[in-house]
């Protein structure tokens, strides 16, 4: 990702007859569904300019979650992208997607918007124990029209828009690997067919297209990998040399119990670029510089860690992503806001570790800001409620946006009355609190805005 100061770059819910691209409406009573942690409704933070929206005082203590309705995607600041439907999407009326990724790049002097994410196959209600790879959509503007990438010249017999899949293993040739053995589908008695690609990101760097993605929990090896295009945005893509044997980084104990020992590596990989240099970003605090040829990372073991201000105790975080804007680095994570009950009977919202009595509520986007890529990063804050596992990007007019998908796995959006509205390719407008305060929030209501320019 390049600096937003120097160019374009980058990680409605449909209900019945609402139609593709309808606006997101904050559900009635959502703000009352669980009381927010008390935070002072104080004036602007020190140093904030009245030209810009104001930083909100953070809930206390550090690690408490901000649940104010202003931080939700709403009908006045967000919408679901009208992506071209595949046959599998027609009944639902929109694409089922987790880990939504959208970005804008300048290609041949024109803006090109890209969208991708984790999708599912017909007949399954989640993206596991297998899915059929990575799809890409393209558009000339954020509002569209959004069309599936034209992959017909690359693979005339494959589903349009599918740029990579474990099923493409038959395309491997000596010296050119499309699908490594550890990425191929496999079977066992417990799950049957297994293997899936998660959380893809699409990047245009030094005139070449790259996809960074993750093989999910049901794969032979779980972890992040990178593909490079030998043509245009539609491919054909091949696996880089550094991932022929395994995902990036070392393996460690992690993930569900059914993952084979030694098979779990760091997930949710992303790419951050600045000038002619690029870095791999991994959950939840690792990074590594890519080699100049982009075929592997420079350091393959004992990866360096971002200097962060952790919570105490630190929960499991996902979806690490770095975005540079106006000289500041924004480290974005996804974290579960878990509710519990205080001794006085009030509801506590916090980015807690799991424990008895703590209930998953919202999958939030939390952000920390630094002057350097590696940190140190200031204390995290809630940037968007329910907007976890996203990316930030700038549109071709300079507007700031984040993606969201509304996690249907647990919490608020898993409720029977809401799950049909979750797992969507959504975008929500962001606001910047200026050079003195340097935060990015979901565009808030009038209470949060202060005076406008």
Tell me what you see in this structure:
There is one protein chain. With about 450 residues, the chain is an all-beta fold. About 0% of the residues lie in helices and about 30% in strands. The chain has two helices and 25 strands. The protein has helices at about 435, 445-450, and strands at about 80, 100-105, 110-120, 135, 135-140, 145-150, 160-165, 185-190, 190-195, 195-205, 210-215, 225-230, 235-240, 270-275, 275-280, 285-290, 320-325, 330-340, 345-350, 360-370, 380-385, 390-395, 400-405, 425-430, 440. The strands form seven sheets. Strands 1, 22, 23, 24 and 25 form a five-stranded antiparallel β-sheet that branches. Strands 17, 18, 19, 20 and 21 form a five-stranded antiparallel β-sheet that branches. Strand 12 (about 225-230) and strand 13 form a beta hairpin. The two termini are about 30 Å apart. Residues about 1-50 and about 445-453 have low confidence and may be disordered.
Keywords:
single chain; 453 residues; mainly beta; five-stranded antiparallel sheet; 2 helices; 25 strands; 2% helix
Shape: globular
Question: Which regions are unreliable across 5 or more consecutive residues at pLDDT < 50?
Answer: 1-49, 447-453
> Radius of gyration, rounded?
21 Å
How many individual helices?
A: 2
Strand content: 25-35%
Following the backbone from N to C, one meets helices and strands in this order, namely EEEEEEEEEEEEEEEEEEEEEEEEHEH
Mean pLDDT: 89
């Amino acid at each position: 990702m390049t600096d937003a100061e120097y160019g374009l770059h980058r990680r409605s819910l449909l209900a019945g007859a609402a139609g593709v691209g309808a606006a997101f409406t904050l559900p009635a009573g959502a703000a009352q569904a669980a009381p927010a942690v008390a935070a002072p409704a104080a004036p602007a933070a020190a140093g904030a300019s009245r030209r810009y929206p104001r930083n909100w005082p953070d809930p206390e203590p550090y690690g408490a979650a901000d649940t104010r309705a202003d931080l939700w995607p709403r009908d006045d600041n967000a919408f679901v992208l009208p992506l071209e439907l595949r046959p599998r999407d027609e009944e639902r009326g929109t694409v089922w997607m987790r880990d939504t990724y959208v970005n804008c790049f300048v290609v041949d002097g024109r803006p090109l918007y890209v969208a991708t994410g984790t999708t599912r196959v017909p007949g399954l209600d989640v993206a596991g124990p297998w899915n059929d790879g990575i799809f890409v959509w393209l558009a000339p503007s954020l509002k569209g029209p959004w069309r599936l990438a034209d992959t017909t010249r690359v693979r005339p017999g494959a589903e349009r828009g599918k740029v990579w899949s474990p099923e493409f293993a038959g395309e491997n040739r000596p010296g050119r690997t499309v699908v490594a053995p550890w990425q191929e589908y496999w079977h066992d008695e417990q799950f049957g067919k297994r293997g899936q690609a998660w959380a893809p990101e699409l990047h245009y760097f030094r005139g070449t297209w790259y996809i960074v993605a993750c093989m999910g929990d049901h794969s032979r090896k779980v972890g992040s990998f990178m593909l490079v295009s030998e043509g245009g945005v539609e491919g054909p893509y091949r696996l880089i040399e550094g991932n022929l044997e395994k995902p990036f980084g070392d393996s460690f104990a992690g993930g569900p119990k059914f993952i084979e020992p030694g098979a779990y590596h760091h997930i949710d990989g992303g790419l951050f670029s600045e000038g002619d240099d690029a870095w791999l970003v991994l959950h939840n605090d690792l990074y590594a510089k890519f080699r100049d040829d982009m075929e592997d990372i420079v350091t393959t073991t004992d990866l360096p860690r971002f200097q962060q201000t952790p919570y105490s105790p630190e929960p499991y975080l996902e979806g690490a992503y770095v975005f540079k804007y106006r000289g500041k680095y924004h480290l974005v994570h996804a974290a579960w806001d878990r509710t519990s009950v205080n001794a006085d009977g009030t509801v506590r919202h916090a980015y807690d570790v799991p424990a008895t009595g703590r209930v998953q509520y919202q999958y939030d986007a939390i952000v920390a800001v630094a002057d350097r890529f590696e940190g140190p990063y200031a204390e995290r804050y809630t940037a968007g409620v329910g907007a976890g596992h996203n990316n930030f990007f700038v549109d071709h007019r300079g507007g700031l946006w984040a993606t969201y998908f509304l996690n249907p796995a647990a919490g608020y959006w898993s409720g029977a009355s809401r799950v049909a509205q979750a797992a969507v390719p959504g975008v929500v407008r962001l606001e910047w609190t200026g050079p003195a305060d340097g935060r990015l929030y979901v565009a808030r209501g009038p209470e949060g805005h202060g005076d406008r320019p």
